[in-house]
Here is the input.
Amino acid sequence: MSGNELSVVLPASYDLGSVLTNTNAAMYGVNVGGTVKFNHLAGVMRFKFKNVPAGTDRFTITLDKKINGTFTADLTETFPVLETEAASSASEKTITLNFDALSKTSDISLYVPLPTGTYTSLALNLYAGSKSVWTYSNTVTNTINRKTLKLMPAVSMGGSIGGEIEGGDGNGGSSGTVSTDLSASGTANSYIVSEAGSYKFTPTKGNSSESVGSIASAEVLWETFGTDVTPNVGDLVKNVKYENGVIYFETPSAYKEGNAVIAAKDASGKILWSWHIWLTDQPEGQIYYNNAGTMMDRNLGATSATPGDVGALGLLYQWGRKDPFLGSSSISKSVEAKSTITWPSSVWTSLSNGTIAYATANPTTFIGENGDWYYTGSSSTDNTRWTTSASNKSIYDPCPSGWRLPDGEGYGVWSQALGSRNAFGDYPYDSTNAGMNFFGKFGSASTIWYPASGYRHGNVGSLDHVCSFGFYWSASPSTYYACSLYFSDNGDVYPSYSDYRASGRSVRCLQVID
Here is the structure.
């Protein structure tokens, strides 16, 4: 120790004998009034192996920076740490754990003390004498924090030397895969997944960086194909978990299209926030006339943009709520799509359950009212649930990153594209495919398909008028109502229609222009 600088040597190897649970974590002690108080200087990474073959007696870990040798800590800091740095030689990047040879196939856990910092590669090896038992390497990011035990995914060895190689990626994945970060380009309440794989996202409130609270667990709330086929649990999303500030999940290897919702819960089981996982091919943008903007080619939650396809109906939303409700499983009648759960009965809005807090904690409960589900007890109401006064996306906007709810009224996307907010009639309704093609009206794309996906009644949430009406929310309030696009099977089109906020309507997202 020199002044306020403490030097600590982290060994290049540890001889554990038969005790494999010793973390050997680096600490320092301070004498406070005759009592020595210890503080952690580094972190620990745990590796859990199943069915490790008999004879295995050595483990090595190699990272891309210095992990053994002499490190210094500044004791003037409130919580001093040993920070990683560039290695001066390859030998400084490896730590070896030696232990008594296993007498039989066993499950073991190994703990490796590491200096704090972020590492971008990982190589692991298990040996029986000079013979390799298992090896794994990948380019993957892992961050080690002070006083933190980083739990790596469990690895199954298969029970034979030289057997199949399997490993975790340190990112919550399995079998050597890297979890794709869905929130890398921006956080949101909805994430699009277009192929099978392992995924992760940072759990924040919508498009903000605001924490949702103290997360204890994460789980799938429901899954649906959007059809009359009931999915099995895990058909769309599986292996959901929360670890080190990130939510991880996987799809089955046989990728299927549909929708799911993942929720984060606190220790008491209360839902803190939930996110829509939209399993579909990547939506395309369609440019609307008069610089109105670029709109998605499909409804939010739709797995298709093809006229007449039930997959084009998508999901339904109460105005200002981020979480979806099921649409129809038919284009010709109002029959709710099947899902993995029995949905709870609707509740009538009140001071206790007509709130943002209640809606957030109960994302599958429809909040009924003849007007607005949001309860104020007076004539005032919250008009910024889906947008700010500057038409910016709010934290409750249900659209994916890079998209938002469009504006309504005279300046809204539909009115602007048409050049007028006035209603018109006798527009050709496609009764065969149950909807309208706004080619030549909204834009020049050959198919701008809006299905007549019906709606959910605001009072009880029942599904109705599929094949007869199409309602599409905007983010814009209109006195005590909200603006929407509305059309009917008799050919009437209203680009700026005032609608009850408690109703469940379709959503079509507008591309965000930076």
